[in-house]
Amino acid sequence: MHRFIVVGGGAGGLELATRLGDRYGHKSRGATRAQVTLVDRNPTHIWKPLLHEVAAGSMDPFTQELEYAAQARWHGFEFQQGELTGLDCANRRLTLGPVLDDDGAELLPERQLEYDTLVIAIGSTTAFFGVKGAPEFSLALDTVSQAERFRKRLIAACMRAEH
Fold this sequence. Notes:
CATH class: Alpha Beta
Radius of gyration: 19 Å
Structural class: alpha/beta
Shape: elongated
CATH architecture: 3-Layer(bba) Sandwich
Helix content: 25-40%
Number of helices: 6
Order of helices and strands: EHEEHHEHEEEEEEEHH
Number of domains: 1
Strand order of the largest sheet: 5-2-1-11
Largest sheet: 4 strands, parallel
Number of strands: 11
Strand content: 25-35%
CATH topology: FAD/NAD(P)-binding domain
Oligomer: single chain
């Protein structure tokens, strides 16, 4: 059985895993023709263009999150949470780091996954284009936690300005 692994659950990676799962992974359509696995360090996805709404406080990110495990179940693929920490192209194997809870306790150990076809769809982060001081003195909006940090700082600044 062919093993697809898609690393990165952003818009592109999630769409690819969903389409591959729909096409090859559904057991309900007869025999499973391929194993499709989506890998992401986070358990949920939020569409990045919505992060400005989280930052502004006009949207609760939890109402827009998509659970990777639920999407996997609905569309015939597997989800493995973990950060890509190693890649052995010669042996077609990747390593996922352990998954820790908020207190640092290990939920899942380091794992290795083997593949026949690997797609790296890890997306991008904010580019500062070499502008001196930009990384230190600006706030990027690449993650929900960054958007929430921005919102808290904005509210604090407004409160200070009002008093």
